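debug: dumping io for the single-chain case to check the tokenizer round-trip. Nothing else runs in this session.
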Amino acid sequence: MSELRMIVLIWTLLAAMATTGVLGARHRGGAVALALVSLVWLVVDSDFEGMVLIPVTKHNGLTTSDLVGVLGGVLALGQWVRLTRRRRRQRSVPRGQ
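debug: decoded output
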């Protein structure tokens, strides 16, 4: 693995941890950042992908490492939906109640 790819990977993992731990629980921006980090993961994980779980073509498919990026995307979507619902509930409650 090249040194640049290793640096990108480390920053990706750090960004994912910071995003989910600090922003993701309260702000939709954290969900967006997690989705972007998950997308970056899918690009940089090629050196340690693992076995192919679902073949798409003869040389490509969904690997075990790809599941990390997919899971991050699913979590980001879940955070977005949860925070949007909470925001709607807060707006529907009259002030002073």
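debug: round-trip ok. Helices lie at 3-23, 28-44, 66-92.
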